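Q: Here's a chain of 312 amino acids. Please give me its 3D structure as tokens.
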Amino acid sequence: MSKKTILLGLAAVALALFISTGILGAENSVAALCLPFTWTAEGLRKLSLSGSLGNGVAIALLVVLGLLPLAFKWKKSWGMEDALLIFTSIAIWYTLYVLINPYVLPDILQGTTGELLLCGSCYSLFLSWAVLRLLRSTRSMTGENFIQALEIFLYLCAASQLFLIVSHASGLDNAWNRLESGNTMPGQNLLPSYLFLLGGFLVSVLEYGLNGWLLLLGARLMKDLSQDPYGEAACRKAESLYAWCRRTLAVVLLSQTALNVAAVIFASRIYYLVGVGFRLPVSSMALAFALLVLASLLRKGQQLQDDNRLFI
């Protein structure tokens, strides 16, 4: 399995999860990952109950489905990380078996939570294999391959920011309903609480939106770097990324600080169900600083290249 195929597969999963999130909501979109397992188990159960022939076919299909992960290494050399494919097959067999026969499940795995844990274990094993396989392939990758891989990775990270925005929108709706239903005090003014909820959501959207924009700028820069590291297009985009990193750091820090200070000032007027708490956007700061350093190094390298051309 090639590196490009693995990356495209991960991109397709991320895109499918994002689309399902927009349609189903954050919680239901995660549960949708179990549908391939639950639907397959339901079909195999009906086939098994149809008679002795159907039961034999169901068993054969169960074996084939469990062997699917091993197809990625068919007639190819094996590495240590490929042992995870064997465990993935075992996990698929066990998950499908217990979903076909739910009475054998422990009590803790009953219901939606148990299904998510079982199916998530299968996905986790396969994802771990894919990542470790990519790490092994980096030994033979050239600088251009690394830039292309980074471009795809940045696009995936940008998509994840959209996923976070949709998730926060779903969380805002739930918090709004809990605030309304949980208010048992007559005459309680909920307007400050609603405004604070909305303000927290807008600050999060602003943060994740700017993060996504930085990641998109970084991905576009990687594309130009792979074509011509010292070209005019790469120079312009490095300058743009540098400027946007500075703006993002300032905006994210100031907006989150304003929200924290507002929570202290208006704490007595905010209903307790809102869940006020201190938050520092460390991950966003790290992302902006990392891209800022990258853009700064590229700018200096391009300036040195221009100076060398003038000297020559």
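Q: Can you summarize the key feature?
A: Residues 203 and 255 are 6 Å apart (CA to CA).
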